[in-house]
Fold this sequence. Notes:
Layout: H1 2-16, E1 20-24, E2 29-34, E3 38-41, E4 49-56, E5 61-63, E6 69-73, E7 79-84, E8 93-101, E9 104-112, E10 121-124, E11 134-135, E12 141-149, E13 155-163, E14 169-171, E15 175-176, E16 182-188, E17 194-198, E18 204-207, E19 213-214, E20 227-231, E21 237-243, E22 254-260, E23 263-266, E24 283-288, E25 294-299, E26 307-311, E27 321-322, E28 329-336, E29 342-352, E30 366-376, E31 383-393, E32 398-401, E33 408-413, E34 418-423, E35 431-435, E36 440-444, H2 445-453, E37 461-465, E38 472-480, E39 483-492
Parallel strand pairs: 3-9
Antiparallel strand pairs: 1-2, 2-4, 4-7, 5-8, 6-7, 8-9, 10-39, 11-12, 12-13, 13-14, 13-15, 16-17, 17-18, 18-19, 20-21, 21-22, 22-23, 24-25, 25-26, 26-27, 28-29, 29-30, 30-31, 31-32, 33-34, 34-35, 35-36, 37-38, 38-39
Amino acid sequence: MKRILSGSIAAAMFLLSSLSGCVKTEETFHYVKLSQVACSFDGDGNTPLAITVETSPAAYEITPGDTWVKAEKSEEDNTLILTVADNDTGAERSTVIIVTAGSASREITVQQLTRDNRIARYRKLDTFSSMGGAMSPSGKYVGGFSEQVDENGMWYFTPIIIDTETGEKHEFGPYPQSLYALSQANAITDQGLLFISDGYNGGQIAIDLTGNIFIPESPAGFRGKPEIQATSADGKYWVGFAMKGKVFEDPAPCKALLWTDGVPHELPWPELNYRDEEVWYGGMARGISADGSIIYGTSWENSDFGMLYWINNGENTAKPEWVGKDVREVTPVVMKMSDGTEYDYHIVNGMICTANLTNISATGKWIAGSYRTETPADDRISVITTQTAAFYNTETETTVIVEDYGESTGVHATDDGIAFIGVGSLGISSGKVYDLNTGTDLGSTQEWVYDNYGIVIPAGYINHVSADGRFVLGTKAESSAMGVAFINWYIAPPIVK
């Protein structure tokens, strides 16, 4: 595989660093923008691939590669449809398609595997809502939903569960927004139970492979419906949160929850919040290791997002500890209001996490997040922050802070210490891979995927890797007329035929 592709992989990786090329003339810029400049196909049974095209001037030409690839414009000319023939040659093959507009041009590198390949499959989940989808702990299923609007402005939602091993797709509905206004797919079990937030009724729906729907419940005495965020691989444990009291009326009204065999109970919370001050809002359980042993969560007061973790003992679970407690520093300072009034405050250097749901390895050995530092500005009115990827080892109770990539976010890690990092802190569009054991850079997402799975993928970052490494869930940014959309993708073994 590597020998056959070696001549084109360098070029493909260079192309992936940019989606546009442009040439300036005396009057205007000529450019070609493509949503995808490298793609891989199975040896047979492929569906056509649509690539969005934006050019200046508007008219563009296509220079085809080999005859086994057909490249055709859509009726509106803004989409290029690639159709590949089955590969009966017995060898992998590749070609290049050139798109030209005026004096600008871009290449699309196309790879195709053999019919009997043992190489992984790459699939975009672009039918899912822009809020993305979820992968089950072992990678058996991915789940999400599509959305559409009718001529009367009524939205309809269709839950979707895909069996990544067989490619089988389960679709249910569509359900009108008056019934369920689905907003985000949060979690799916290895048994195919999908949890999706319901923006109309609050809380969530849970839907299984047969289309049966039920509404998860909070513990007795809670006023709010729950949000389940993650599950263990066997489906025994679910974690999430719900509102018990009212903000500013009740202490810590938002409660972290653990369900055992569908029965919910409240998880204990620390005496003080992330800033070592009185708790006024509370927080949430965000994720659980595949084996169910470790739970992580976040405090949720002001801009804190401090990370905590519990050792799961069911109803006997003890109070959590702060993730990255070995590097956490709390310092009292005197700050100023804009009118000059002084007040006491605590700045914190420590590990944080926002609403990320995949930040834990299969056995809970590693928890991914970001190490944030805080420094009062000279005027003492504002606080200056820095943020870099960080990973906490629950076995050694030590933290690895990765400063190699500047502003960055720890997204996921495997038990053997392979860390997946999003470059930036908001609107992440690219990723890096890092060995926590040796402190070694393992390349970009694309380079790591090629080294480990033998396929070329577009830019993006990795959200989740199954314990056995056979399944991967990732995210990529795509430009559209509505702006930038973040699309999920997955890698899975070839379908056994």
